[in-house]
Design goal:
The protein is mainly alpha-helical. It is built from ten helices and two strands. The chain has one domain. It is globular, with a radius of gyration of 19 Å. The two termini are 34 Å apart.
């Protein structure tokens, strides 16, 4: 038990140090520095929300359209950003593996944690600002809102665990990732609720794991008025095997990486 606690403390310090390094490398120390990690998704979400308001009016699915779009778009941007950051991440940071305490998973986890913290900060900030103007509701069920975020984050990291080593095995994958990320949009649940779809389409769309996380978030935020459709077990049935496969691929790639 003592050795486990010691190893845990070491890896915690390693990940903390790598996060500081990554933040400094990406954002520097000038202007607002690491706060850009929050501003980037914030700007995307606000602009898309305002565009929808101009195109469709103030209400969508019985709720404020800006809060509806923002609550879906920020998790979607989390997925797209994490996916793009995971591609070739091991090669870009391979020199860090010279240090015995740094593991190959640390590199991927650090990039994911930075994206997750930044996007959750953006979500909280925009909720407070829009809430002050009556455009964002107080959560109906905070537990379900956080659970939905956890499911969406779990799906994101499980996919990244597979994509990161595959991108090291074949460089062609890097070229297809931007297109793949955009194809994710209709299967993310960001811009619709399942109850508004036809039964045939809803049955198909519920095969997408992130939709369940998004429906939980929307229920936690807007309440039962949106008639949420989700399963607590189905996303795990996809994510856990996907993570296991990703770990095996990462182990295989680690043997091929040349540490300089």
């Amino acid at each position: 038990m003592a050795s486990f606690r010691k190893g845990w403390n070491i890896q915690t310090r390693v990940i903390g140090a790598l996060m500081l390094r990554e933040l400094t490398t990406r954002f520097g120390r000038e202007n607002i520095g690491f706060l850009w990690i929050m501003v980037e998704p914030l700007l995307f979400a606000v602009l898309v929300g305002l565009l929808w308001r101009v195109m469709k009016g103030p209400v969508e699915f019985g709720v404020d359209i800006v809060s509806f779009v923002v609550s879906g778009y920020i998790p979607l941007v989390l997925f797209r950003s994490s996916l793009s950051r995971s591609v070739s991440s091991f090669t870009a940071n391979g020199s860090l593996l010279y240090h015995r305490q740094v593991k190959i998973l640390d590199i991927l986890l650090v990039r994911f944690f930075i994206e997750l913290v930044g996007h959750m900060m953006a979500y909280l900030f925009i909720a407070v600002v829009l809430g002050a103007f009556g455009m964002f509701p107080w959560p109906y069920d905070m537990g379900f809102l956080l659970l939905g975020w956890a499911y969406y984050a779990l799906f994101t990291i499980s996919v990244c665990l597979v994509i990161a080593p595959l991108s090291e095995m074949n460089e062609i994958l890097e070229k297809f990732m931007p297109v793949t990320a955009y194809l994710m949009v209709p299967f993310s649940g960001a811009f619709f609720i399942v109850s508004a779809l036809s039964p045939a389409v809803a049955e198909i769309i519920l095969y997408s794991p992130p939709v369940h996380g998004m429906e939980m978030m929307r229920y936690g935020l807007f309440g039962p008025s949106i008639d949420p459709q989700y399963s607590l077990l189905y996303p795990l049935q996809f994510c856990l095997p996907c993570m296991a496969l990703g770990l095996l691929l990462c182990r295989a790639v680690r043997k091929q990486l040349v540490v300089e």
